[in-house]
Structures are given as structure tokens and as C-alpha cells.
Specification:
Protein name: HlyD family secretion protein
Keywords: Membrane, Transmembrane, Transmembrane helix
InterPro entries: Beta-barrel_YknX (IPR058636), MdtA-like_BSH (IPR058625), MFP_Efflux_Pump (IPR050393)
Number of helices: 3
Strand content: 25-35%
Shape: elongated
């Protein structure tokens, strides 16, 4: 005999209704429990980016750029010659001043000059970054900052690497919000606009993050910071 789902529901309406209600409640409880757990044990944000301390490469003298032998993405060694200028009126003995060298071991992340450009010592021709010292800057809501401490473990996701996870730790917590120096906190009617401030938190990658040298500066990131829940916060007070 063919099973008639509609007849079954009609005959067992109360049981079916009860079952649906129980299922909905179970799902709701699961979602709420997950939200509460995540809120208690983690501080999370998608407002984060891969960053690095950038080093300027500049000439020692004024003169035309004759050679520029590196491209963006090239790895260079400290004191490696990467460019050469016209000596101009300098004697041949000053040739070393016309050579532009890399100030650190690092990665060329940006070229800002081309052969034929007239350069001066205040001109930056390239930006260098040390790929072994890349980090993440995460902007955390001011209401969550008090839960953070240096050395807390962080799970990091980089959009460029999809579902792959990286590990890190908090290195420093900013002492100034992103908008601390801005003066546009008032509406057109002169009323103060109260908004949640963001505090920058610096997160260093663990040494095990062997793909960090392939990150692109400015990559979007997401972080989940493991916070310690101290149920005996007052136990140490005397």
C-alpha cells in the first residue's frame, strides 16, 4: 500500500505539530548556545588586515636614475645593489654614493621610480618589507578590548587562502582608537554622534605559519582571539 504523507499528517496532526515545535526549539537553543559560547570564550572580528613595517629605499645623492634592477615581489639581501644613478658632478671616487642598496633583507613590495627619473635624497624609490615579520592589525570594538591581554592565542583566516587557518598571538593593544584624532563626531545639527570606537590590536603570526612570506600586504583577514574566562575574578582580592 502506498504511503500517504498527507493522510498521515492529518491523522497525527498533534504529534507532527509537537515534533516541529520541539525541532524548532532544539535549533534555537543550539544557535543561542553557540552564540553565547562564542561570545564568552572568544573576541572575533572581520575588520582586520595583513600588515608589515615598511622600509623606504632612497638615494644618497641627486641625479638621474640609470639602472633599477629589481621588480615588485623580488627578495633582496641587505646591502645588495638594486639601483644606480648618474654621478653628475661627483668625482669617480664617489661612485659608491651613486649606488642604491637595500637597507635590510626583505621583499620589494612597491616600486616608486623608473629609469630616467631625476632623484633627490628625499625621494623614495621603493618600499621594502620583511616577510618574516608580517602581522595582522585587527580593529576591535572598544567594548571588547578590556578582555584582551598580550600573548593571547589567535586563530587567523586570510581571505586569499580560503579556509586555511593560521595561528598567532597578541603582541600589543593600541592605546588610541582609530578616530581619536578626528573631529567629525558631530552631526549637521551639532549633536554628538556616539559610535562604537575601534582599537587596533597587533597580532604576530606564530613561527609555524610557513606561508606568511606569500601574504599580500593589505589582505583582508578575520581573527578569533581566545580569551581567558576567570570565574574567580574576585578570589584574589583581599
Amino acid at each position: 500500500m502506498k504511503f500517504d504523507i498527507i493522510s498521515f499528517i492529518k491523522k497525527n496532526r498533534k504529534k507532527v505539530t509537537l515534533g516541529v515545535i520541539i525541532a524548532v526549539i532544539a535549533v534555537a537553543v543550539g544557535l543561542i548556545s553557540h552564540y553565547v559560547y562564542e561570545h564568552i570564550y572568544y573576541v572575533s572580528t572581520d575588520d582586520a588586515k595583513v600588515a608589515a613595517d615598511l622600509i623606504n629605499v632612497s638615494p644618497q645623492i641627486s641625479g638621474k636614475l640609470l639602472e633599477f634592477d629589481v621588480d615588485e615581489g623580488d627578495i633582496v639581501l641587505k646591502d645588495q645593489i638594486i639601483a644606480r644613478q648618474d654621478l653628475g658632478n661627483l668625482p669617480d671616487s664617489g661612485v659608491d654614493k651613486s649606488l642604491i642598496r637595500a637597507p635590510i633583507d626583505g621583499l620589494i613590495v612597491k616600486k616608486q621610480a623608473a629609469v630616467g627619473d631625476n632623484l633627490s635624497p628625499d625621494k623614495t624609490i621603493a618600499l621594502l618589507a620583511d616577510p618574516d615579520n608580517y602581522y595582522v592589525i585587527a580593529n576591535i570594538d572598544e567594548t571588547q578590548v578590556r578582555r584582551l591581554q598580550k600573548k593571547q592565542t589567535v586563530d587567523i583566516s586570510i581571505d586569499e587562502f580560503g579556509s586555511q587557518k593560521f595561528k598567532g598571538r597578541i603582541e600589543s593593544i593600541g592605546q588610541m582608537s582609530q578616530n581619536a584624532l578626528k573631529s567629525n563626531s558631530y552631526s549637521e545639527k551639532g549633536k554628538y554622534k556616539r559610535v562604537v570606537q575601534k582599537v587596533p590590536v597587533k597580532i604576530k603570526f606564530d613561527g609555524s605559519s610557513n606561508l606568511k612570506s606569500k601574504f599580500t600586504l593589505g589582505d583582508n583577514a578575520s581573527v578569533k582571539i581566545h580569551v581567558v574566562v576567570n570565574n574567580n575574578a574576585n578570589s584574589k582580592k583581599k
